[in-house]
Automatic annotation (TrEMBL), chains A, B:
It comes from the Bacteria. PANTHER family: HEAVY METAL-DEPENDENT TRANSCRIPTIONAL REGULATOR HI_0293-RELATED, REDOX-CYCLING DRUG-SENSING TRANSCRIPTIONAL ACTIVATOR SOXR. This is Heavy metal-responsive transcriptional regulator. Residues 1-69 form the HTH merR-type domain. InterPro entries: DNA-bd_dom_put_sf, MerR-type_HTH_dom, MerR_fam. Keywords: DNA-binding, Transcription, Transcription regulation. The keyword Zinc does not apply.
Length: 129, 129
DNA sequence: CTGGACCTTCCAGTGCAGGGGAAGGTCAAA
DNA sequence: TTTGACCTTCCCCTGCACTGGAAGGTCCAG
């Protein structure tokens, strides 16, 4: 199948598939005599895996690592578990930071419940911040 | 004061201050006869304001808008309040997305509590995802 | 044989907030 | 006078995951 068909089957674009090949996420495709990329149907599964990895918040670099392990003939399960653990920790930290920021902003707002422009000196630009 | 002194006083770098000037966050500085930027002491307050804006999660573009209103002689309080309201909504949405992602990943992990590489088919790359 | 849909490569840009480093000018102290 | 710290402008680079577009080749229907 050609790159456009594969892209449609996998829910992405031809441009993105060339980009993935360039980044080492897809192996270099076979070529027709005229130079067109020619994919086997199971390429869809590989792209689906990339999408599942992205849905789990992994970067393309991390997904490439997993694929490289699998391509090397080993099972990447343990590496995947480590990546997911790290991702969970990251997410927890991000949520904590956002929660703190939410509190900070809410406090700023409470500290200026009635905006009174006259009490905002030009020096401090705005009493709100 | 020269740009290096100002940078140290404001807790940033000379490079960043030139960048801010370029981006319209700081007015073009006075120059000494030899071409050095020459700042009044109150420049520190303006940079502090930029930092407070950043601490509230505003982008430099948003901070520039606020400063432009103040520089135009008006009080930016209402615009600031709108920006903070929008930021709060964004943060809430981000937290919701991260929470959902956290749940998704945790479920993936539970679905594969005992990693068994043999049950991972190469086709699906990894049972975990 | 022509038009249009598809394909190829390559270069460049997006948004965000700066950082790195070159090439050259200035200033104060030793 | 010379060193070394500072300053100037300039352009390119970073990370992330693409996206746009130009210039040209291929394939198939009408």
């Amino acid at each position: 199948m050609r790159i456009g068909e594969l892209a449609e089957a996998a829910g992405t674009t031809a441009k993105t598939l060339r980009f993935y090949e360039d980044q080492g996420l897809l192996p270099p495709a076979e070529r027709t005599p005229s130079g067109y990329r020619d994919y086997a149907p199971d390429a869809v599964a590989r792209i689906d895996f990339v999408h599942r990895g992205q849905a789990a918040g992994l970067t393309l670099a991390q997904i490439r690592q997993i694929l490289a392990i699998r391509d090397g003939g080993r099972a990447p399960c343990e590496h995947v578990r480590d990546l997911l653990d790290a991702r969970l920790a990251e997410i927890e930290q991000q949520i904590a930071q956002l929660t703190a920021l939410h509190g900070t902003i809410a406090k700023l707002k409470r500290g200026a419940a009635q905006p009174d422009p006259d009490t905002c000196s030009p020096d401090q630009v705005c009493r709100y911040l």
